[in-house]
Amino acid sequence: MAKDAKPAEEGSEAPPKKSKKLIIIIVAVVLLLVIAGGAAALLLKKDADAEAGDEEVAEETEKPAKKAAKKKDHGAPPVFVNLDAFTVNLVPETGDQYLQVVLSLELDNPEAQAQLTQLMPRIRNNVTLLLSSKKASELLPKEGKEKLAGEIMNEINSAIEPPTKNKKGEVVHAEGPVISVLFTSFIIQ
Questions:
Q1: How far apart are CA 106 and CA 168, in angstroms?
Q2: CA 105, CA 82: separation in Å to the nearest integer?
Q3: How many CB atoms lie within 10 A of CB 39?
Q4: Closest CA to 158 of 111, 122, 106
């Protein structure tokens, strides 16, 4: 009988070894699930906080939201408007000098083209006055042409959206629909 009792005890010892492996595997899986759940909760909380912060900022001021809506969509093709040629007398330095320039305007959205066309007489007047106030020596170097392009852009944007004054009394130019001014022809004679 004693011999029969020992094999029964040995047989009962074998199942605990298998159950230890099973318990270790279950604990490892549960631990991985807890870690993954914690990481997911942390990431979702950060996203929710960022969205809540964006909503608070948007509610505080409406003007930046309008500016963000105006920004150019990088996926959309650019919108260009060609203007008729400008021919003006330059400020005399060494006799009579003339400037003939043809411009293309890059706009931030297609809807701005209608507004630009509607205000074209005012825009042509302002650009003509600006061009006729220049000297040939100012416009000959590349930097002079780049500066002129920026001044024309500000002039056109000011005609579309007039500048305002800030609290200090300084003139602030509005961000108009014209993104850049491109010269397609530039002749000084």
A1: 32
A2: 6
A3: 10
A4: 122
Instruction: Report H helices in 61-141.
Output: 63-70, 112-118, 120-132, 136-139
- CB-based contact 27:135 (threshold 8 Å): no
| Cβ-contact 100, 187 below 8 angstroms | yes
For 11-68, how does the pLDDT look when each residue is reduced to its tens digit (9 = 90+)?
555 555 667 888 888 888 888 888 888 777 777 776 666 555 544 444 443 343 344 3
Query: Which tens digit of pLDDT belongs to each residue from 129-150?
Result: 999 999 999 999 999 999 999 9
Nearest residue to 106 via CA among 130, 126, 77, 85: 77
Collapse the DSSP code of 180 into the 3-class scheme (helix H, G, I; strand E, B; otherwise coil) and give the result: strand
CB 122 within 8 A of CB 159: yes
Please tell me the distance from the alpha carbon of residue 34 to that of residue 132, in angstroms, as a whole number: 74
For 73-188, the fitting CATH number among 3.30.950.10, 3.30.479.30, 3.40.50.300, 3.20.20.140 is 3.30.479.30
Burial annotation 138-157 (CB, 10 A radius, 16+ → b, else e): bbeeeeeeeebeebbbbbbb
Tokens 């630009």 label which residue?
Answer: 116
